[in-house]
């Protein structure tokens, strides 16, 4: 098993359309053995030329969409393409459906997010940054996927909501009604 230096550093980039509430839009105090560095272009078109330079040396790309905004979800394909064109397969990509607290306004189902992630071969989780739902599990999932961190993959995951529990298919619906979300690898 590979060993990881306690000083190993990994660069995370958060990508997504304007108004999807990426953590860089507000103060965030989570790092993975690195110094936090925030560059929020808010998905604005005038900053598109800067994005490749942020992606270029990243270890992780977190692509965020708003579950209450179908267009932001549809645009995640271009973000995945952008990351892959800069980093190839040498990057961890996580698709994050944010704002699960907006239950009545949901336009993108858990299943749609999960299916898109599976088709793209990337990880998926839903969160609510506002309510703090699935934020720690998101970063645990990322940390466990980093090179040399295989032992973390068996870490307790009781905070994660598994929408695939049970065979009746109602668990997804129940999690969604409760403002829940899902995660998959």
UniProtKB/TrEMBL annotation:
- Domain of life, source organism: Eukaryota
* Family annotation (CDD domains): Rab6
The entry's family comment says: Belongs to the small GTPase superfamily. Rab family.
- In its UniProt entry, what is this protein called? Uncharacterized protein
Q: Which NCBIfam families match?
A: small_GTP
| Species of the source | Hibiscus sabdariffa (roselle)
Write out the ranges of the annotated region (Disordered): 162-185
Q: Name one Pfam family in it.
A: Ras
- Write down the membrane topology: Lipid-anchor
Query: Where, subcellularly, is it found?
Result: Endomembrane system
């Amino acid at each position: 098993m590979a060993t990881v230096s306690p000083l190993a550093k990994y660069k995370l980039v958060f990508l997504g359309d304007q108004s999807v509430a990426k953590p860089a839009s507000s103060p965030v105090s989570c790092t993975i053995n690195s110094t936090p560095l925030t560059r929020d272009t808010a998905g604005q078109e005038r900053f598109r030329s800067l994005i490749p330079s942020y992606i270029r040396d990243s270890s992780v790309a977190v692509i965020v969409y708003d579950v209450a905004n179908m267009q932001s979800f549809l645009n995640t394909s271009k973000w995945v393409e952008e990351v892959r064109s800069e980093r190839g397969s040498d990057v961890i990509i996580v698709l994050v459906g944010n704002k699960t607290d907006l239950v009545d306004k949901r336009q993108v189902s858990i299943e749609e997010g999960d299916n898109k992630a599976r088709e793209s071969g990337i990880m998926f989780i839903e969160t609510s940054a506002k309510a703090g739902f699935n934020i720690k599990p998101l970063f645990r999932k990322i940390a466990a996927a980093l090179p040399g961190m295989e032992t973390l993959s068996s870490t307790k995951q009781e905070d994660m909501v598994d929408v695939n529990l049970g065979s009746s298919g109602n668990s997804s619906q129940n999690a969604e009604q409760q403002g829940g979300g899902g995660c998959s690898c």
